[in-house]
Known about the structure:
This protein is of the alpha+beta class. It is built from 13 helices and 23 strands. It has 4 domains: 2-65, Alpha-Beta Plaits, CATH 3.30.70; 77-152, 2-Layer Sandwich (Alpha-Beta Plaits); 163-220, no CATH class; 226-498, Ribonuclease Z/Hydroxyacylglutathione hydrolase-like (Metallo-beta-lactamase, Chain A). The strands form 5 sheets. An 8-stranded mixed β-sheet has the order 14-13-12-11-10-9-8-23. Strands 15-16-17-18-19-20 form a 6-stranded mixed β-sheet, with helices on one face. A 4-stranded antiparallel β-sheet has the order 5-6-4-7, covered by helices on one side.
Amino acid sequence: MNKYSFVARMPDESGALHRAAEIIKSYSGNINRIQYDRRIDPATVFFEVTAAPETCLRMKEDLHAIGYLQETLPVLGFLKFSVYLPHEPGALFELLTYITGAGANIAYIDFDDRRCDPGRVTISLNVEESMVVESLLDRLKSRYRLEILEYDTTGEKLDDTVFYVRFAQAVRGLIGTADDGFLLNLLHDVNHIVQELHSLGQDPEEAFECILCTGRTLRDTTAGGFYADVQRIPVSDAVEVFCFQMPGGGNIFLLRAPDETVMIDTGYGIYHQDVVRMFQHYGLGDLQRIRRIYITHADADHCGAGGLFEAEAHMHAGSLAVIRQANRAYGSRSEASILEEVYTTIINLFSRFAPPENPELFPAEKIGMRSIFPILARVRVHDLEFEILESLGGHLHGQVYLFCPAHGIIFTADTLINFGSLDEDRRRYNSFADFLVTSVNVDSELARRERRALLDVIADLDRELAPSGRRCLVACGHGSISTLVDGRLEVAGPVERYRPKER
């Protein structure tokens, strides 16, 4: 027995859902999940069914035969117009006959003969083909005085009677070409996350809007909308660290040494071309110098462009497993969370996820301990020696930190974030993920332990560095490179805003 999912589009009439359930039952299918909410879309029902492969095929054939099985996502347009009818019996009936004959679906109609323009009827239609619109308008123009008020083919003006079609059109506009089968599967996943959030008391419409806002933000902050906040700080006499805060998602760090440049985290794949141009602006455009990339963890905003560089990537085996399982909660106690799994699908899609394919993995056996964190390896960047510290998996399974006590810098991934240094747009973007997965940490208790331990490690190093007047640089996963002052992260050094030059 296998599990199958499908989308049904049913007539809004008594017994429609019962009829679908009867067909599923007749083939010994077991319904594992069903979701329908007429407040969102009065005709769309999502099913997950367990059945034998051969019976599932016949089940779908029967649903298709009665017009219930949704296998395509038509590109619908929205047409709003007014016509002026003669004041005579049957005039409205004749108009509706034209509309019905064209196969258009009325979404709105407004008529009242007591108004100052008593013959005016305003109608909104959802229409599937532009040829239908042209033919209908030609017929109406030949018969009535006609005013076209709106005509939209983007899906933005469609009403909620075709909500999921409208949502699919919005997604298609964000990701480009996608076949109907792919979008129907995506709709099924999105519906599942909305169902789960609704059970937690969240507003379904807010969930849909958060998903679209995530995609729109990433799209709108590329090319001319791209920007970054940049710091460059000497770490030693020979090595300089660059911190690039992306408009959405995590930081990219470059360690520029005399003989090479080493990258720590890559940002989203969707920003890759913008990032390369930014590197050129800062004299870092020779990508051949980037020979190594260290990935702190498997979230798309930290590893999602790793496959677009020719450099050798290094990561924890757990990070590779998260990438291959396409579930950011893999390896944690939240692994079964549908919110985490579907969010991973959505963000990977919108951000053009392109992680390293065959990375080098850190050793599994520890070679020492730093506080509560196992030391998995030591790596050198010119005169800097870093310890690779294994996290407890609070934020993500397989997350690591890079710590250089001799020169006073630690890359903390997403365990430490200087939230105060984030601008309002970044805070808003980060809030989408918080809403959709309820917490970006897959194990909040472990994440708190990690945070306390890292702060202690930094405070201890600060005490060691105090005689030289130095402090440990804290390179957070998001926000500015900072130092720890009275228990708080404060921005270290100047930060400049980069924007691409108009070409």
